[in-house]
Description:
Layout: E1 3-7, E2 10-12, E3 18-25, E4 34-39, E5 46-51, E6 58-60, E7 68-73, E8 78-83, E9 92-98, E10 103-104, E11 108-112
Amino acid sequence: QVQLVESGGGLVQPGGSLRLSCAASGFTFSSYTMRWYRQGPGKERELVAAITTGGGSTNYADSVKGRFTISRDNAKNTVYLQMNTLNPEDTAVYYCYVPWFASWGQGTQVTISS
């Protein structure tokens, strides 16, 4: 059974940083591309970042390029999202997703506010 558990969200001031984690289980984590999505208030869910199996290829939404970094530790079955220079428009629930199984985590709330 595929399970994804996000953590690391919280309330941060503009300009601050957060590191999200997604712990995966129930499948061979190292064999699958992973993605982070987010859904802001009143907005549709959008792709934020993706990373291939070995971490050699990543891509990002234009809105987060240069500020966010996706990475993975296959030994720990975990994918990360380092978020820097956060602004209020980054406020959203952030979700981990494994496309092959079409499985989502429960999400973690990120709120950027002074």
